[in-house]
Amino acid sequence: MRLLLNDVLPGGASPGELLDEAALEGLYAYPDAAGRPWVRANMVATLDGAAAGNDGRTGTINTPADLVVYTLLRDLADVVLVGAGTARAEGYGRPGPRTGNRAALAVAEGRAAHPELAVVSRTAAVPPLLAAAPEDGAADGGRGGVLMVTCAAAGEEALDRARDALGADRVLVVGGDSVDLPAAVGALAGRGLPRVLCEGGPSLLADVAAAGLLDELCLTVVPLLAGGVERRVAVGAVADRPLVPRVLIESGGTLLQRWTRPGA
């Protein structure tokens, strides 16, 4: 991986240098947010802006470099925030342990050995793969837990089904007719999960940005012109949120970008 821009670590790696694992982790480290939650989004797109391959899945446009950063961002996060539709389409399972020594470092900091997964659903519908009991007979199957982020409009029957599947304390009802995302992020932080990684999909990312919650966007652009009719990385709610480029890395034609809100 070759660094092209570094505006986050003065005195760190310089443009043109090749990055080792430690340097890469430093470039993506969460900032000291003075006790407030920090919401980072991670998305991938083709050269023509498609947020998925023509089969509707992001997996078909991922590259090895994108996978490295995807894994790193999950390792650094406390909780992964994802829309229920994306979780179903992409076959989301419970998050595994952080890789390498990052699990031990997280535990030493008083954090879990694996991130949690928070699924946003107005109807409180738990994706089947996440509703299934953890494997191997352990209490958590060696994986992170699942939280449902929903609203009162889901109705008591749907809420009860979600509580039966995940546990009563793992269903967060925030909002009346729709999910109150600022309240959701506050509730996650209140559970000791302030480092939020939003993995979309495009509708959820637009909603997060429109609500003024987006602190940072990590965007991978892969060297592929897809054509087709796939959506952009953010669609739906009008956001109009300016972002500032902080990091740019190139690897095998893949561009890895880190953008933050002005003044961050």
UniProtKB/TrEMBL annotation:
Residues 37-238 form the Bacterial bifunctional deaminase-reductase C-terminal domain. InterPro entries: DHFR-like_dom_sf (IPR024072), RibDG_C (IPR002734), Riboflavin_Biosynth_HTPR (IPR050765). Keywords: NADP, Oxidoreductase. The keyword NADP applies. The keyword Oxidoreductase applies. It holds the Pfam family RibD_C. Pathway: Cofactor biosynthesis; riboflavin biosynthesis. This is Dihydrofolate reductase family protein. It comes from Nocardiopsis codii. The lineage of its organism: Bacteria, Bacillati, Actinomycetota, Actinomycetes, Streptosporangiales.
